[in-house]
Design goal:
alpha/beta, two-stranded antiparallel ribbon, seven-stranded mixed sheet, 212 residues
Length: 212
């Protein structure tokens, strides 16, 4: 099941696309975002892509038909940093038009970092309901992923991050979820990817059940 859904999501990721980003319509009030799944341009430099975030978003859409947005083409921009950004503009419109209540913005941490998961909340500013933070944290812990930190090292407090901007513009609960890249290695012996995916599935189900 996991292998099949990952393969189908990989085909979507490898499909040619000229647009900067895409939104896949879906059901429910929980949405996932992957603004860094292609290379980004920041301060005159290219930053590495975080491709597994886009893959995970596509897998979640295939599994649950939940709405997602992800970058598709490198356009010398950074959707999680630029003040003026078509990605965030389109996302804000979708959130308002489809009654999205919670956004999880997916990112990757360097594999050298000690934390496995970082839940960025803007020191609580971007998440009005503290139950969401605990629910997300527990989903990872219960799937055997330890070292789940909150607002360390990334708080997502910079006003033009996806999560901070969507909370400010749309008034919804937003989390910037950083996943250690060591968990996502493309290695059949590495169980980390499966654990991360199960954790994200649990997050979707739990947050949907909470009826935010």
């Amino acid at each position: 099941m996991l292998k099949d859904i990952r393969a189908r999501a990989g085909e979507r990721m490898n499909a040619p696309g000229g647009e900067s980003f895409l939104i896949r319509d879906g059901r429910g009030s929980v949405m996932f975002s992957a603004p860094h799944c292609v290379e980004q341009w920041r301060d005159g430099k290219i930053k590495f892509a975080e491709p597994e975030t886009g893959l995970l978003a596509e897998m979640l859409h295939l599994q649950y038909c939940c709405p997602i947005i992800r970058k598709q083409t490198f356009c010398r921009d950074d959707a999680n940093y630029d003040q003026v950004c078509r990605y965030k503009q389109a996302l804000a419109r979708y959130i308002k038009e489809h009654d999205i209540r919670c956004l999880i913005d997916l990112h990757q941490l360097a594999s050298s970092r000690p934390e496995m998961i970082n839940i960025g909340t803007g020191e609580g500013v971007n998440v009005g309901d503290e139950r969401i933070i605990e629910a997300v944290k527990n989903c990872f812990l219960q799937n055997g992923i330890s070292s789940v930190w909150v607002d360390q090292p990334f708080k997502a407090s910079y006003p033009h991050t996806v999560s901070a901007a969507m909370h400010r513009i749309c008034g919804i609960d937003c989390i910037q979820l950083e996943i250690n890249s060591a968990l996502l290695r493309n290695d059949e012996k590495n169980e980390g990817f499966a654990r991360v995916y199960r954790s994200l599935c649990d997050c979707f189900e739990k947050l949907t059940e909470m009826r935010l």
